[in-house]
């Protein structure tokens, strides 16, 4: 999947992992670092350099929350929002390349997420 996305994402200047971060932000505009890590199943040590790079590109901002300075809020910028349509076009091309319809892909995604959850639970035991 990553290999299929790579040339398409290269055109808009994102890696697949950066694209995954932006997908969350395009969905919610602003999230805490903790929620972002949970959604992407990445720890803060992996996320921090990734977010720093995206912030340097002007695609997001990171700010400590006023009400709780221990919490970092990650927010998409107008420049980050401007990439959404180009990324959606890349996603359409990948969907077409799979040969599956959106419903079949959604079922497969849900099954893989359930499998991941079961494996995480088993490894934590």
UniProtKB/TrEMBL annotation:
Domain HTH marR-type: 1-117
Subcellular location: Cytoplasm
Main location, first listed in the record: cytoplasm
Pfam families tied to this protein: Staph_reg_Sar_Rot
Gene3D superfamilies: Winged helix-like DNA-binding domain superfamily/Winged helix DNA-binding domain
Keywords: Cytoplasm, DNA-binding, Transcription, Transcription regulation
Source species, domain of life: Bacteria
PANTHER family, per the entry: ORGANIC HYDROPEROXIDE RESISTANCE TRANSCRIPTIONAL REGULATOR, TRANSCRIPTIONAL REGULATOR, MARR FAMILY
UniProt name for this protein: MarR family transcriptional regulator
Organism, as annotated: Rhodococcus antarcticus
